[in-house]
């Protein structure tokens, strides 16, 4: 199968606070446009791989230099995608007739390795370096942890607050030893846990809107989220939201970021709704 017509563009915000982490053009990537329209993005921190799920149900694999390595097409639509670092497995969450399934496929061939049905309402998924799968049990305020090939799980309850927590999305932090949980209610209420379920950090924002797969982590002290198609820097240490600048205001209102990922130490990738600029790649320098 021939490689798709893909290259990546640069985009630089002009409104970044000079005292805050900066985005820079990524010098090794081309400026040409491309036709790939990604719906979801995830990364393998260990092997430094980037995975894109596009509107044609294809999964594309890239290395850190964004050279296209592989692609295959699924025969079903998925709501979440994650990888087990340092393995050849991709985990997919599929909803079918009000039931939720985890499909595990080979990252090179796309062939099904195993699958199982989840017993409750689950939202986001992520994997740790040992291949354990973490899912958001939305109705029970729990994070469930599955062994890679076993439909048997352990779990931990999100640390109690004075309101009901509803975990919606979970992502492994680049340190590979903690997870960041986004709660649907209250909106933009984030928590950081270690892999045993111990609460490490809580931070929030007054914004009431969220977008699925709209955040990523740069390190233990910062996260980046997408609000109304604008990117904001969230400093976990001071619990403040810093606007990096609306990318639409920088080069036109057609830039509408909705899915983002960070691959340490410096590659930040943005998927847009734009036809002209579907994907931007930046060099990000966190604290």
From TrEMBL:
Superkingdom of source: Eukaryota
Organism: Oopsacas minuta
InterPro entries in the cross-refs: 6-blade_b-propeller_TolB-like, Quino_amine_DH_bsu
Higher taxonomy: Eukaryota, Metazoa, Porifera, Hexactinellida, Hexasterophora
Protein name: Uncharacterized protein
């Amino acid at each position: 199968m021939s490689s798709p017509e893909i290259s990546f563009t640069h985009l630089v915000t002009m409104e970044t606070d000079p005292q805050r982490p900066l985005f820079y053009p990524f010098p090794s990537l081309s400026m040409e446009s491309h036709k790939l329209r990604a719906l979801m993005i995830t990364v393998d921190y260990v092997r430094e791989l980037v995975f894109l799920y596009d509107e044609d149900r294809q999964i594309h694999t890239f290395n850190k230099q964004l050279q296209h390595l592989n692609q295959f097409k699924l025969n079903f639509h998925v709501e979440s995608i994650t990888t087990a670092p340092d393995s050849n497995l991709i985990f997919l969450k599929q909803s079918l007739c009000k039931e939720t399934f985890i499909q595990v496929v080979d990252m090179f061939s796309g062939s099904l390795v195993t699958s199982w049905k989840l017993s409750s309402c689950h939202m986001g998924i992520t994997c740790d370096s040992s291949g354990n799968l973490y899912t958001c049990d939305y109705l029970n305020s729990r994070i469930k942890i599955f062994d890679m090939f076993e439909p048997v799980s352990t779990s931990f309850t999100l640390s109690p607050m004075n309101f009901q927590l509803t975990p919606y999305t979970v992502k492994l932090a680049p340190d590979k030893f903690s997870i960041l949980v986004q709660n649907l209610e209250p909106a933009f209420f984030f928590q950081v846990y270690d892999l045993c379920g111990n609460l490490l950090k809580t931070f929030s924002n007054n914004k009431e809107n969220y977008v699925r797969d709209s955040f990523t982590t740069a390190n233990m002290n910062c996260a980046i989220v997408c609000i109304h198609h604008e990117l904001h820097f969230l400093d976990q240490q001071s619990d403040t939201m810093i606007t990096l600048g609306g990318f639409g205001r920088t080069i036109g209102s057609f830039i509408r970021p909705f899915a983002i990922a960070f691959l340490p130490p410096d590659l930040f990738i943005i998927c847009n709704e734009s036809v002209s600029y579907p994907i931007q790649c930046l060099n990000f320098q966190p604290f």
